[in-house]
Prior knowledge:
By secondary structure, the protein is of the alpha+beta class.
Amino acid sequence: xxxxxxxxxxxxxxxxxxxxxxxxxxxxxxxxxxxxxxxxxxxxxxxxxxxxxxxxxxxxxxxxxxxxxxxxxxxxxxxxxxxxxxxxxxxxxxxxxxxxxxxxxxxxxxxxxxxxxxxxxxxxxxxxxxxxxxxxxxxxxxxxxxxxxxxxxxxxxxxxxxxxxxxxxxxxxxxxxxxxxxxxxxxxxxxxxxxxxxxxxxxxxxxxxxxxxxxxxxxxxxxxxxxxxxxxxxxxxxxxxxxxxxxxxxxxxxxxxxxxxxxxxxxxxxxxxxxxxxxxxxxxxxxxxxxxxxxxxxxxxxxxxxxxxxxxxxxxxxxxxxxxxxxxxxxxxxxxxxxxxxxxxxxxxxxxxxxxxxxxxxxxxxxxxxxxxxxxxxxxxxxxxxxxxxxxxxxxxxxxxxxxxxxxxxxxxxxxxxxxxxxxxxxxxxxxxxxxxxxxx
Length: 441
């Protein structure tokens, strides 16, 4: 029943413990214009729950607790026009459903005491008709930077029937049949609070907030394993009546840990509109953490026609974003390995790039590269073509290996980002687009 609400949570899960002062490298905005597409995706996900068993749980049975096993929806019918998904300001998501019909079954263990304890296991079948509900889900960020949900409000009315089989389970449910209407109208919300929400929060706690990638730099014959992108929540989720903003840390790093304070932060991400269904903002912090990773990889050895050379970063490359695109400022030394007695040539280079939108992915497009040598000597002029070769070909090759397939926009399967438009601001860039619902299978 509540899966339309909880499906939207998967938008927030595509995201280690981070302090509240963390910068935001990536921010996702879902506007109210996307709610119909998300509703359709949620209904599709809801339909996929039919004939699938939920995890076992314990539920109250009078004064005792009973174990419920294999809870399964066997059918579910609802008119999409009678499903409304909305945003609750400073809270989260609200779902309204009218006239939903469902059937299901589960196994139940019930223990009674008659001289001694007797435990019976029986099958229970149930049916709900004319179910109407209003459920509000509040979205929180916990201390570990993970998403956590709670019921903000809950109203459920339905015609509910159930029948059990077994020596004890059958008579118990025959008796409870008289109380079915009261159960559906007064007990389902507490049941959701006690059973469904813990299941959802456990799923969120178990879900990784890391994107992992192995980088294969073909021209160096070098594979870099365990590159991570931290997608934990960097601060609280912000909800207004027309948009939901999800801030993510967006730190690129390798190994056990990385000093987040050593990365240049840049400007805070700000969305200036909500005219399209969804927006993805990427700040300089994301790109500069990737540049820090590149710097920490150490020198590159290149084989060129003039002989092998070693190119070494003097300091961490700095990425800046302006209204014309991205600029990477790089300081390197280039040392000939066949003439090691010669001093290295120092070069300062600027790489100018833009981002292209391809289907659900963002890809790099190079515009220009400019290099200055220090000092401008005859020897430097001889080495200059090698330096330009490195930046015009090899650095592009490095970045192409990272972005060869593009960086996926963080959306669940079945939702596609279309009509993407990229806007550059000082310190960050924003990709705005619509959502197309084409769930397969």
